[in-house]
Amino acid sequence: MTGRVSKAVAAAGIVPAGPAFVLVRPQLGENIGAAARVMWNFGLSRLRLVDPRDGWPNPAAVAMASGAGRLLDHAGPYPDTAAALADCAVVYATTGRKRGLAQPVLSPAEAMADARAHIAAGRQVAVVFGPERAGLETADVARATAVVAVPVNPDFPSLNLAQCVAVMAYEWGRDAPDLSLTAAPEAEAALATGEERDRLGDRFDTVLGAAGYFFPPDKAPGMRQVLRAMLARLALTRGDVQLLHGALRQLARAGGLPDGGKAPGRDGGGS
Questions:
Q1: Where do runs of H (alpha helix) occur along 121-185?
Q2: What pLDDT, on a 0 to 100 scale, did the predictor assign at position 44?
Q3: Count of structural domains within the chain
Q4: Is the pTM of this model over 0.85?
């Protein structure tokens, strides 16, 4: 465990809250176990797995994790990226390829400094890693608030999955202060979760689709993806999401269009 974690917390077996590390469609059990092990080295305990190729549980992952096997016990698996990120307000996607999306690009150090600020404010944060062979798909990256690019040799840019996890875990543990276990006030943790952004995106799809916005048809998937990326990048609060739900509902009523259903809870703009 990093030396910055307080001795009292470490002695009690408690790890301060940190970002969830989400491995999307990992291929090798050995890489999953190695990722768990290096996470635990740097005081991180929230591992999530999305649709691992060789099924779950995986004996090779358990063997490689060694003393960090406890991280595997609560890692899922999750059926898809949306499910793994449903409770997360801030998401960082690790990728080495340009995607044509407009998310800010951060270094690992910048991303983890940003993550610490969000976590201190009581927000759920995730860092997403892609499968070994091809990395994250553009649809996964579109869910991210920001992209993380590791500065590597351009003539040999490919990082092993566990190595990439190690870089991010190190940057978290290197400067992580002792974190309070007391939850922040609700007003300080008002960013919308991934699930709330997804529901808003669904409503945009329904209302704009019915209005003929996604045209021509061959460009519609890309337009929808750019819209989802924009919603993630804006770091919307729950109040923002409620307002947009209400606005879309009223526009749909005025135009006689389907509005995609009600949002959970109270949304602005009337009922």
A1: 138-141, 161-175
A2: 95
A3: 2
A4: no
